[in-house]
Design goal:
By secondary structure, the chain is α+β, with helices and mostly antiparallel strands. It is built from seven helices and nine strands; from the N terminus they run βββββαααβαβαβαβα. The structure holds zinc ion.
Amino acid sequence: MVSQPFRSCVACRTSRQKRDLVRVHLVPDGKLGVDLGGGSGRGVYVCPLHVCLEQAVKRNEFARCLKVTLAPMTVEDLEELIRERVSRKVAALLGLARRARKVVSGAEAVESAMKRHSAQLILSAADASANSVSKLRTLAKEVGIVWMQALGKEELGAALGGAPRVCVAVTDPCFAGAVMSVLKKIPVEMEARERPHGQAADLGGRAEPRKVWG
Ligand SMILES: [Zn+2]
């Protein structure tokens, strides 16, 4: 496996692998864009942590590093932009997984995939009922599968080309890993992932839910 290059966060200066950072760059209309997977041209890297994003915005690091003048932007705007990119990327990955027949959806199919240990990642819709969320989360923990919350029911359905879905199970480890690494870029308040890469699958239901609102 080729290890990815490291980059430093513009706010805290911590050096991390590129895949663990969000890349901010300039889009053609002169606004900031967000990259989740590399990208070319001039870019600025930042941790997907509220504190780093806030500091970068306050200190105007993006304009300074990109050598441009930017319209004022709040940290909330930036976080919203990241969430939106994450949602789109997760939906695209789920669409590909569906075409490769590496995803099942609906409570029954998902539970059965978990029990057969063919599920690699469980996603509950961000707007699924508390009951269905807690049921799946508990079951995922019991069988040791990563559980997360992402997208709304409508968005999950659209990604899979059909009616709204409350949950999906990704059954292929590569797709599951790709979805997890994208979901890790949702800005969080605090560092909750001081662990070597590759151990995410051991976290099971203990993984904190990362919500992607549509
Ligand atoms: Zn940082």
